[in-house]
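User: Hi! I'm working on a homework problem where we have to compare a predicted structure to a textbook description. Could you give me the structure for the chain below?
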Amino acid sequence: MINHARTLLLNRPSESSPGNNFPGEHVIPIDYPRLDLPTYLDRIRERLFGSDPDRAMLNYRLQQFMTLLHASQYEGYVTALDNRITYLDTGRRDLFDEGLFVPSANPIGTTSGPIYLQGKPESPDAVGRLYNQHAVEVMTPTSIRVSTFAPGTRQTTTTVTFANSLSSPVALGGSGYSVLVGNDTPGSKWTFDFYQRPTWSLGEITLTLRSIGEPTLLQLFGVTNDEPYNTFKSLWNKNMETPDSLVGLLLAVIYRTDEERISG
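Assistant: Happy to help. Predicted structure tokens:
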């Protein structure tokens, strides 16, 4: 199938695609179903993508993983499954554009007056949810409500004070940012839509995988010397300080997932 290895790592059906204009999105075969994977593969995927990744995180990591695989001398294992590939278009870098990760305020209706952001983004890597969507509304001259729609859904109302025409800080729902509002008129409202950039390097992800436990790795690589898993296991075991270590694990995940597709 087209984009075979990437599709297996993504493991999402074609109907789940948010569209080709979504950052980092690529073709998924129309007949691919989401596979119900064994627990050991789910455990590994949590280290690769986060415990509850959104589409942006999946696409972000997949661009990193597939670039790594194709840059290695073991690329043949990727193309052996199917050499029809659409995701190597080097002209498309939208998911890595800096503008995606810069929060900006969008006033709603007749809202006027400034709103300022402070703080720095929290790392989204452990959970894997990059997309943030928040609404900030002045409820009374002394209270501001923040509605968070992503990640998660929650609403908080904070009592504020104003000094020098600015409110005290109000947190934006777990993003690491706070806002200071320069307008105490009830009904004033702004929205924020942005992504949080992952902070873990591929080396750090590899380190988290090394603590996953021997039983999980035995299920992944097998206990015999069957190929291609023996090659993948050797890459993982003998290249601890090089990218080939992660290459071996990723290839094993791809091939085990393909076995589940064929048997399912």
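For your comparison, note the following. Strands lie at 105-107, 115-119, 131-140, 143-150, 154-159, 162-163, 166-167, 170-171, 177-181, 189-195. The radius of gyration is 22 Å. Good luck with the assignment!
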